[in-house]
Structure formats: structure tokens, C-alpha cells
């Protein structure tokens, strides 16, 4: 080969190799950026209100007497998969009682990214829960072959609301479902209520039940992203409930649920383990994840916030420990609400702060998605067929037809409205315990930093990112989202 031809060939190879190199993403920079501050504060009319437009200046070493929030965009962690709430039978029944105008307002409030807070996650139930007007099933009692299976019950209220929510959200809403109890004939106590366990002879029947549900919902145009094995598997409740030890859940997933979903060509449906409080999640993770044959079917772990029933504090560190031990597994907050409904406390600010505290800690400990409980309840905190009345971020007074927005709605919105799908959490820390903070880098290059002030005093703090900073003021008992 001639020398010039060889040179030309080498040049072409070089061009091809260069073209195949992945384009490097631009590193985040604050240079030339402005900060838009959105604020919600107690004793004010600020509700996710744009309150300031700030610029960056050269950063200086903060002093011990100053309060600072430090963000390091180069240190990236979990990918964000969404924030949302549960469409229960109760929520759907109350929604159906609203006027058309109020229905539109409600849907926009949750699911529209501009007019509302942009929910992107949805949880729903497989059969009835406590937040149904009564217990019901998709099959006739005793039907082991599931020949009578139908979701006709859900077509009256729940499915229409889910479809409207998906439409309002732009045509896509990541949906997952959880069962509260198998049918009475499948259980050791012969009752859908008050605990009991799934009888071994019905393990396969119950696994088939999940597959039937998923396929029927998908026929309705509602793709199911995932399912949990069982809602609150260690709680004997007065409502629909079923007990699984860690070993029982492991074996049900390994030998029945996982293989059945795969066999039914539903292997893409994620299985969420645990779906209960933070207190016992470490033991459940150790038992299920240490078994490779069970673990291979499990996307990750769901958890709730009700461990405080015992009088203790929220056990956020357990989430961090599971994430530390099993970094390849997902984490999702699957349920939380303010218990013991009291209409005089609709605007009790501490309810909103409970959400802010939990969401910041859960995200900072590795959680990828966060799901509230009922998206809507009535003026009694129901309907609930066993009197377990609770708060929702939005209530509807069915006597007047009015919607009541609680502080919880706005606190959730400071996250869901500004953190978008596929965002990456980045390192965010505070210098004083009066503030809490978490930060997410969106795919479009914008950063959302959430800062919460739990104290009775307004605080001036420095937002410091690399060699630049800005000074921000946050009111007492407030939450802010800084977008830059």
C-alpha cells in the first residue's frame, strides 16, 4: 500500500473513532445563572410563591456564626423516579361527588406541571382497603381457579379517576399496586380483616391473582409499573390485612410471584418488597436480598412512616442502612399520611412540616420515589369502612362542594413541582440543624435545592456552590425551593 493511502486510511479510522466517542455532558455551573426562590410559610399568604430572584457572587469561607447550605453538583446519587399519591376507592368516590369545575381544579392541582404540583407517581389497591366504603373482591368466594375474576367494581369510580389523572399528567403516570388481603378462603383466619396468613395451598392461586389484575388494568390503558407483595405485612389490622414473615415473603416471591409474573410475560413488572414501616425494614432486606433466587425478582423495598406509633422518632437511619448495604436495590416511600383526622386541624402547620422532614431525609438516604396516601378525602377524613379516618393533602367538603388545601399539599409541591423525572440527587448539606436541605439536578441542567426552616425565627443563609454563593432569607416555619 502506498504511503499516502495509508495516511488517508489512518485519518479515516481516527475520524470514525472520534465520532464513536460518547459526548461528554457539560458539568453544572452557576456562572451567569439566576436563582428563583419559591416560598411557603406559616402565618403568611405565601404558597409556593415566587419571592425572590437572586444572583451568584464570589464565595467566601463561611464563619461559624453564619448558616450555610452547601451543594456539590459533581457528587451524584440516585435517579429520581417520581412523587405522587394513592388513588384509593375513597378518593375516587369523593372525586365523583365534585362538580365538573371542581374536578378539573382538583386534577390540575395534583397532576398539571404548570397549574399544579406535577405528580408523576400513582399507587392504587388490589381489591379493597380500609379506604373503601366496604370490603369487596374481584372473584366469588371460593373460586380457586379465578374463573369469576372481574375488575368491574373499579370501573365505577377508581378507573375513571386514574384515567383522568394520567391524561392530566400528559399521558403518563408511573402506576403501581398493592394488595391489602387475599380472599377469606385463602387465609388462615378465614377473614379478609384482622391479619391471618396466606395458606400454602393458595400461594399459586394468589400469585395468579396479581397477574390477572395487572393484565386487566393494562387492558384499560393503565400500564402497571410494579406491585408490592403485601401492604404492611407485619400489622394485624381491624381492616384488610395479611401477615408475612420475612421468610414467608421471600419464599412467596421466589417460588410463586416472581416465576408467575415471568411466565405470564409480565417479567417487566417490578416487585416491591416489605411495603411497611422503617423499623423492621433492615431485617426484611437481609432475609430477602441474601437469597439470590428471591432477590433476582425484587426491584427494591417500599417503606412507610408509621413506626412512630410506638412513641419513638422516625427511623430515617434505617433507610440509609438498607441503601448502604444493598446499593443496587431501589428504595421507595410507598405510604404516609397524618393519622387521626380532626377537622379543626386542616391548617395545622406541623402536618406539612412532617412531610418536609420525611421527604428531605428519605431522599438524602437514597429514596428514588415518594408516594403519599389518599390524594382526596371528605370532611370526615373518609370514607373508611372501619373508622380509620385520616388527613389527605386535599379534602373535599361534600356538603358545600369546596376543596380544602392543607399545608401538606404545599410542602409536597415544593418537591414534586420542581424535581423532574430522571433527575439526579446531588450532595447537599447544612451547617446548622435549624435547616434541612436536599438537592436534585434535573436532566435539563437546572438545579432544585429544597431548604426547610423548622424554627420560630427567620434565617439568613448562604447557598454555596463551588466558588460562588448567594444569600437567601427564609421565614420562620417555611420551606423554599431554589431553582437555578
Automatic annotation (TrEMBL):
Keywords assigned: Glycosidase, Hydrolase, Signal
Glycosyl hydrolase family 30 TIM-barrel domain span: 82-419
Ligase is among the record's keywords: no
Cellular component aspect of the GO annotation: membrane
GO biological process: glucosylceramide catabolic process
GO molecular function: glucosylceramidase activity
InterPro entries (UniProt xref): GH, GH30_C, Glyco_hydro_30, Glyco_hydro_30_TIM-barrel, Glyco_hydro_b
Domain Glycosyl hydrolase family 30 beta sandwich: 422-482
SUPFAM superfamilies: (Trans)glycosidases
One family name in Pfam for this protein: Glyco_hydro_30C
Signal peptide: 1-19
Protein family: Belongs to the glycosyl hydrolase 30 family.
Protein name per UniProt: Glucuronoarabinoxylan endo-1,4-beta-xylanase
Originating organism: Flavobacterium bizetiae
Amino acid at each position: 500500500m502506498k504511503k499516502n493511502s495509508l495516511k488517508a486510511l489512518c485519518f479515516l479510522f481516527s475520524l470514525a473513532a472520534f465520532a464513536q466517542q460518547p459526548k461528554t455532558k457539560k458539568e453544572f455551573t452557576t456562572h451567569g445563572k439566576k436563582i428563583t426562590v419559591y416560598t411557603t410559610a406559616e402565618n403568611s399568604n405565601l404558597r409556593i410563591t415566587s419571592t425572590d430572584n437572586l444572583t451568584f457572587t464570589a464565595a467566601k469561607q463561611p464563619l461559624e456564626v453564619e448558616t450555610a447550605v452547601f451543594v456539590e453538583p459533581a457528587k451524584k446519587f440516585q435517579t429520581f423516579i417520581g412523587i405522587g399519591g394513592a388513588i384509593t376507592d375513597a378518593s375516587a368516590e369523593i372525586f365523583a361527588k365534585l362538580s365538573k369545575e371542581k374536578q378539573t381544579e382538583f386534577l390540575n392541582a395534583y397532576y398539571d406541571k404548570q397549574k399544579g404540583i406535577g405528580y408523576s407517581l400513582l399507587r392504587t389497591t388490589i381489591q379493597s382497603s380500609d379506604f373503601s366504603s366496604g370490603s369487596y373482591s374481584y372473584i366469588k368466594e371460593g373460586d380457586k381457579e379465578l374463573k369469576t375474576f372481574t375488575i368491574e367494581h373499579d370501573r365505577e369510580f377508581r378507573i375513571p379517576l386514574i384515567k383522568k389523572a394520567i391524561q392530566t399528567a400528559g399521558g403518563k403516570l408511573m402506576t403501581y399496586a398493592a394488595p391489602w388481603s387475599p380472599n377469606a378462603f385463602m387465609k388462615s383466619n378465614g377473614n379478609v380483616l384482622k391479619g391471618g396468613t396466606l395458606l400454602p395451598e393458595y400461594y399459586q392461586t394468589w400469585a395468579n391473582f396479581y397477574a390477572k389484575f395487572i393484565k386487566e388494568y393494562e387492558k384499560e390503558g393503565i400500564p402497571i409499573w410494579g406491585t408490592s407483595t403485601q401492604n404492611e405485612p407485619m400489622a394485624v389490622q381491624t381492616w384488610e390485612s395479611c401477615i408475612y414473615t420475612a421468610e414467608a415473603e421471600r419464599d412467596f416471591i421466589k417460588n410463586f410471584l416472581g416465576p408467575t409474573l415471568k411466565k405470564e410475560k409480565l417479567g417487566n413488572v417490578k416487585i416491591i418488597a416489605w411495603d411497611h414501616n422503617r423499623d423492621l425494614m433492615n431485617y426484611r432486606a437481609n432475609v430477602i436480598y441474601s437469597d439470590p433466587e428471591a432477590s433476582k425478582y425484587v426491584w427494591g423495598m417500599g417503606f412507610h412512616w408509621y413506626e412512630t406509633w410506638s412513641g419513638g422518632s422516625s427511623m430515617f437511619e434505617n433507610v440509609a442502612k438498607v441503601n448502604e448495604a444493598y446499593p443496587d436495590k431501589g428504595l421507595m416511600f410507598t405510604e404516609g399520611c397524618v393519622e387521626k383526622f380532626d377537622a379543626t386541624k386542616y391548617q395545622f402547620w406541623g402536618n406539612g412540616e412532617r412531610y418536609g422532614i420525611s421527604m428531605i431525609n428519605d431522599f438524602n438516604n437514597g429514596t428514588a420515589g415518594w408516594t403519599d396516601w389518599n390524594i382526596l378525602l371528605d370532611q370526615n377524613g373518609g370514607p373508611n369502612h372501619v373508622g380509620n379516618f385520616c388527613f389527605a393533602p386535599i379534602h373535599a367538603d361534600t356538603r358545600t362542594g369546596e376543596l380544602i388545601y392543607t399545608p401538606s399539599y404545599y410542602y409536597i409541591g415544593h418537591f414534586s413541582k420542581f424535581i423532574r423525572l430522571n433527575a439526579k440527587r446531588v450532595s447537599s448539606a447544612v451547617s446548622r440543624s435549624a435547616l434541612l436541605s436536599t438537592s436534585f439536578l434535573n436532566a435539563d441542567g437546572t438545579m432544585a435545592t429544597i431548604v426547610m426552616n423548622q424554627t420560630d425565627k427567620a434565617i439568613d443563609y448562604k447557598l454555596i456552590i463551588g466558588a460562588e454563593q448567594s444569600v437567601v432569607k427564609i421565614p420562620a416555619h417555611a420551606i423554599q425551593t431554589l431553582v437555578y
